[in-house]
TrEMBL record, chain A:
Keyword annotations: Endoplasmic reticulum, ER-Golgi transport, Golgi apparatus, Transport
Function: May play a role in vesicular transport from endoplasmic reticulum to Golgi.
Main subcellular location of this protein, as a coarse class: endoplasmic reticulum
Cell compartments where the protein resides: Endoplasmic reticulum; Golgi apparatus, cis-Golgi network
Binding partners and assembly: Homodimer.
PANTHER family per the UniProt record, alphabetical: TRAFFICKING PROTEIN PARTICLE COMPLEX SUBUNIT 3 (PTHR13048)
Protein's GO biological process: Golgi vesicle transport; macroautophagy
GO CC list: endoplasmic reticulum; Golgi apparatus; TRAPP complex
Family: Belongs to the TRAPP small subunits family. BET3 subfamily.
Protein known as: Trafficking protein particle complex subunit
A Pfam family recorded for this sequence: TRAPP
Entries under InterPro entries matching the protein: Bet3, NO_sig/Golgi_transp_ligand-bd, TRAPP_component
TrEMBL record, chain B:
A GO cellular-component term linked to this record: TRAPP complex
Protein name per its UniProtKB record: Trafficking protein particle complex subunit 6b
Pfam families to which the protein is assigned, alphabetical: TRAPP
Alphabetized PANTHER family for the sequence: GEO08327P1, TRAFFICKING PROTEIN PARTICLE COMPLEX SUBUNIT 6B
One example of a Gene Ontology biological process annotation: endoplasmic reticulum to Golgi vesicle-mediated transport
Organism (species): Anaeramoeba ignava (Anaerobic marine amoeba)
Segments for region (Disordered): 25-44
Length: 173, 188
């Protein structure tokens, strides 16, 4: 398929990283409460996610995922490299509970970033959760995505915890 | 390392959306003191939106210009700076060179881009009457303008980091083409 071989336009990551940093700064100035900032970032991510899924399908030409494991693989090894230029790792995949953690080792978003102690509650990359939630919702997969650990808060690695809320509609299995 | 261009555009659009809605709607209607600060005048709203977005752009423009010129020798003339802006900087940010550059040799430049990246994915509903689809009416120009405050700031910031203190204005009447007017403050 020629469509899937088409290259997606790329830009240097620092443009994106700096823009994102500026947005978070603006949000922190506007809202005093870090929880509110987390929510707002999630909301922004959600609106981005519902648009990004179209592009994802157009560029990868991916077929339907047969189970949740496939979905996880598609996110970690197809979607992340396509949009953010690095693959994510999958950990603690639980077949029964339908949940897993995405491990982000080389996240370009947190380049140049240091969090002052007073913003300890902030999940800097919370926008990623929103994006994942938004794009999966467009595929009728209802998930909950939450930041569990973040390098910026002193954890060893960044982890996004994703769990399936309900069984997807038939056809997606 | 690189990321996809689309995720950047989407992020920018979300940012514009956020700023526009944060200015035009009170953020927390339950708090009364917030409502007092709330700006009702649409002209003022526009000004604040512009200030917020273009300041954000300014900060980023400065940092990027510093970053991308660190291995270059110092620019000798203003022309070199403008040439750098239109070729290298423009390509890095917007994926292409500018299409046309005009100057009056007295500190004013007009930069024209026929296919400006932040406007590329913008469209308006086709109203059935207007055959020239992308000729914008007054109201639509206002909307497009919002998406240009940030790039204006980027250019202003980059120029200021490279040593030209300038005002940058933008005009757009036919998406996705637009025209930036750069006026150096020194020359006046």
């Amino acid at each position: 398929m020629s469509r899937s071989q088409k290259k997606i336009d790329k830009i240097n990551f620092e443009i994106f990283t700096l823009t994102y940093g500026e947005i978070v700064t603006t949000l922190l100035k506007d809202y005093e409460d870090v929880e509110e900032v987390n929510n707002q970032l999630d909301k922004m991510g959600y609106s981005m996610g519902i648009r990004m899924v179209d592009e994802f399908l157009a560029f990868t030409g991916l077929n339907k995922c047969s189970d949740f494991r496939d979905t996880a693989d598609a996110i970690a090894n197809k979607a992340f490299p396509l949009f953010l230029g690095f693959p994510a790792g999958i950990q603690n995949f639980d077949e029964k509970k339908k949940e897993f953690s995405l491990v982000l080792d080389q996240n370009p978003l947190i380049e140049f970033v240091e969090l002052p102690p007073k913003y300890k509650g902030l999940f800097y990359c919370n926008i990623l959760c929103g994006i994942i939630r938004g794009s999966l919702e467009m595929l009728q997969i209802d998930v909950e995505a939450k930041y569990k650990k973040c390098v910026l808060r002193g954890d060893e690695r960044s982890e996004i915890f994703i769990s399936l809320k309900q069984d997807p509609k038939k056809g997606d299995k | 390392m690189s990321v996809s261009e689309s995720i950047w555009s989407l992020l920018l659009n979300e940012f514009v959306n956020y700023v526009v809605s944060s200015v035009s709607e009170p953020s927390e209607p339950t708090k009364e003191e917030n409502n007092e600060d709330f700006i009702n005048d649409p002209e003022d709203q526009k000004k604040i939106t512009k200030a917020k977005l273009s300041n954000a752009g300014y900060q980023i423009g400065q940092k990027l210009a510093d970053r991308y010129t660190k291995d270059r020798s110092r620019f000798r003339e203003q022309v070199d700076i403008i040439r750098f802006l239109c070729k290298d900087f423009w390509t890095l940010l917007f994926g292409k060179n500018v299409d046309n550059l005009k100057t009056n040799h007295r500190g004013m430049w007009i930069i024209r881009d026929e296919n400006f990246r932040p406007l590329r994915n913008l469209s308006f509903p086709f109203d059935g009457k207007n055959l020239k689809k992308f000729d914008l009416n007054e109201n639509q120009i206002q909307i497009v303008q919002r998406f240009l405050y940030f790039p204006c700031g980027l250019i202003r910031g980059a120029l200021s980091a490279l040593g030209i203190d300038a005002d940058v204005d933008v005009h757009c009447s036919l998406i996705p083409a637009c025209e930036f007017t750069v006026i150096s403050k020194e020359s006046n």
